[in-house]
Specification:
two-stranded antiparallel ribbon, about 180 residues, mainly alpha, Fumarate Reductase Cytochrome B subunit
Length: about 180
């Protein structure tokens, strides 16, 4: 099976959807205290639902990837850069899954449930600061690590596109003009 020249439309849609949701979840997490107090529950719930969407779409993307070969990296790419790219991508996948999965017990140990709109899941735990405080810290550190790694990923893509001129970004860009 030969490698395609670019990712397929499903992989591209998942990539950009997850990227948007990560930025949205991170922004909501950072700014929750800036909203009026009456909005706090809604903003937190939106943050949680966005994070859960990230983890679900990340699993969908991983399963999609199992049946769809990725395009090859540019031929002139140094071996160390290839290893860094593979480690970076693996780190992104791990953090896209781990950050929300740390967030859920954090929420539940705060005594908050999950509100899916059509139904709710109440927290089975009483508010337990000695558990949720370290979980909150771990969730925040992991979220910052995810953002840092995503920023490095973006900078590497821009480096390849604008300095190396190897057209790496075309692999994950939507096609233009029906071609």
């Amino acid at each position: 099976m030969t490698a395609p020249e670019r990712y397929d439309a499903v992989a591209i849609a998942l990539h950009w959807s997850i990227a948007f949701l990560i930025v949205a979840a991170f922004g909501l997490g950072l700014t929750v205290d800036e909203f009026p107090k009456a909005w706090e529950g809604t903003v937190i719930n939106l943050h949680v639902m966005t994070g859960l969407a990230v983890v679900v779409l990340s699993f969908v993307r991983l399963f999609w990837r199992l049946g769809h070969k990725a395009p090859d990296l540019p031929g002139a790419m140094a071996p160390l850069s290839r290893v860094a790219a593979k480690i970076g991508h693996a780190g992104l996948y791990v953090l896209m899954i781990v950050v929300p999965l740390i967030g859920v017990p954090t929420l539940l140990y705060r005594g908050r449930g999950l509100d899916f709109g059509f139904f709710q899941i109440a927290s089975p735990f009483a508010r337990t600061p000695e558990i949720y405080r370290p979980l909150t810290e771990a969730h925040e550190i992991a979220a910052y690590a995810l953002i840092a790694l995503a920023a490095a990923h973006m900078l590497a893509a821009l480096y390849h596109q604008h300095i190396r001129h190897d057209d790496l970004m075309a692999r994950m860009s939507p096609r233009r003009g029906g071609s």
